[in-house]
Design a protein that fits this description.
The structure holds 2 protein chains of 2 kinds. In chain A, about 65% of the residues lie in helices and about 0% in strands. Chain A has helices at about 20-45, 55-85, 90-115, 130-155. Classes of the chains: A mainly alpha, B mainly alpha.
Chain lengths: ~170, ~250
């Protein structure tokens, strides 16, 4: 028998993997925003510092955990994505919703808790910081809100019941 | 001077000879031993050995940056590559059956279960580093030869246990869940990163500030690089293990 395509798991199967699509997106968003933070703000602009003498111990711990987690999340989410593709269960909109959600949460946590409360490091030094903080945190909020909207709109509960799904 | 130069060289040569002998004997009875494992074993042993003897080891007595490079080779890169060369599986293939059975029984025993558990292995590995750089063991090992040797031995063995408890390329009788290993990895990598930043901020006693800065950065980014490989293999194994489930339910090809 040559190449006969038997599709048994599309598109209804997506709904069984809606959580994995969302998680893959969230972890990827986490990794992407941490990567941008490291490359753009630490390495290219040199606005952020590797270590700031006013950093509290809890800030150092939080930074270490997030750094380790971002590595883990980037690679893990890519493998989860391959897994979803392999199962024909990849769901682009839900995945993008996850990315926005993950990057928004990280950015907001970084902007409010790590920069301001734990005083890990500031966005930039020797300038009036309040404008930078507002832009940073409002951008985070925008990411987060769009992520929440897309995630709610792609909720499996809102999809049509299984009988009405057309198989191709 | 005699032991400090020759003993590690003799151990390295013996390790190569044993490995080669075992693969030759294994090739007679089983599938050919893959080439990449020879490469992993040779580079792995040389990485670890270079931290104990030779020019890098000599330089490490004088310079903290060289010490840190040695630490990365001895405790991280070397163990990772040696784990990838599957020495336990090879040993069991080569031994006579009754010996192999005793070794298997030992590997399955309670103490080995306990010490090879990811949480124990991570505590030994990262906890040991905190003792070395955070609790004054570093300056003690510069003055006392016995402590020096014990610390190097510990760094290698703990690094090996840690790596082998997280990725299952070699035989691993006691397996733990992906969730537990994920959790342990993140905490352990974070512990390594935090310690490097503390060294960067305040190097251990007796180290010039400039060497402490570079040493801390080297530990941080060098550690990241090897962690990246470890994480990649970990997720690759997850990806492959969830495939069997896939083939059961789907016929798309």
């Amino acid at each position: 028998m040559d190449k006969v395509k038997i599709r048994m798991n599309k598109p209804a199967d997506r709904r069984n993997y809606s959580a994995r699509n969302l998680w893959s997106g969230i972890l990827f968003g986490f990794g992407v925003i941490a990567f941008i933070d490291e490359v753009v703000f630490h390495q290219l602009l040199h606005w952020h510092h590797f270590y700031d003498k006013s950093t509290s111990d809890i800030g150092l711990v939080s930074d270490g955990l997030f750094h380790a987690f971002s590595f883990f999340a980037t690679i893990g989410s890519s493998f989860m994505l391959s897994d979803l593709r392999r199962r024909d269960a990849f769901w682009l909109r839900r995945w993008i919703g996850g990315i926005l959600l993950g990057s928004g949460i990280f950015q907001l946590y970084d902007g409010i808790i790590q920069h301001k409360l734990m005083r890990l490091h500031q966005i930039r030094y020797n300038v009036d910081i309040s404008l930078y903080d507002w832009v940073w945190n409002l951008a985070a909020l925008a990411l987060l809100i769009s992520g929440v909207v897309i995630t709610l709109r792609t909720s499996p509960k809102r999809m049509p019941p299984e009988e009405s799904v057309q198989y191709d | 001077m005699f032991p400090s130069i020759f003993i590690p060289v003799i151990i390295t040569a013996a390790a190569f000879a044993l490995y080669l002998y075992a693969t030759l004997s294994s090739n007679k009875r089983f599938q050919r031993w893959p080439m990449y494992r020879y490469g992993c074993f040779i580079i792995g042993v040389l990485s670890s050995a270079s931290a104990v003897t030779g020019p890098l080891a000599d330089w490490a007595h004088l310079d903290f940056r060289a010490h840190m490079l040695g630490h990365l080779l001895l405790g991280m890169l070397g163990p990772l590559l040696i784990v990838l060369s599957s020495p336990v599986a090879l040993a069991l293939r080569t031994m006579e059956v009754h010996w192999a059975r005793s070794v298997t029984r030992l590997l399955k025993s309670k103490p080995v279960l306990w010490i090879s558990h990811p949480i124990t292995a991570a505590t030994l590995n990262i906890g040991g580093l905190w003792l070395i750089y955070g609790a004054g063991l570093y300056s003690a090992m510069q003055h006392n030869m016995l402590i020096h040797i014990l610390v190097h031995f510990h760094v290698f063995v703990a690094g090996y246990l840690f790596t082998a408890s997280l990725i299952y390329t070699d035989l691993a009788p006691h397996r733990t869940s992906y969730n537990l290993r994920s959790f342990v990895m993140i905490i352990a990598f974070a512990g390594h990163g935090i310690l490097s930043k503390l060294i960067y901020a305040e190097p251990p006693e007796g180290i010039p500030q400039a060497q402490g800065l570079t040493g801390g950065l080297l530990m941080y980014y060098g550690g990241d690089l090897i962690d990246l490989v470890l994480i990649f293999i970990f997720w690759l194994q997850w990806y492959r293990s969830s495939q069997s489930l896939f083939s059961k339910f789907s016929m798309t090809r």
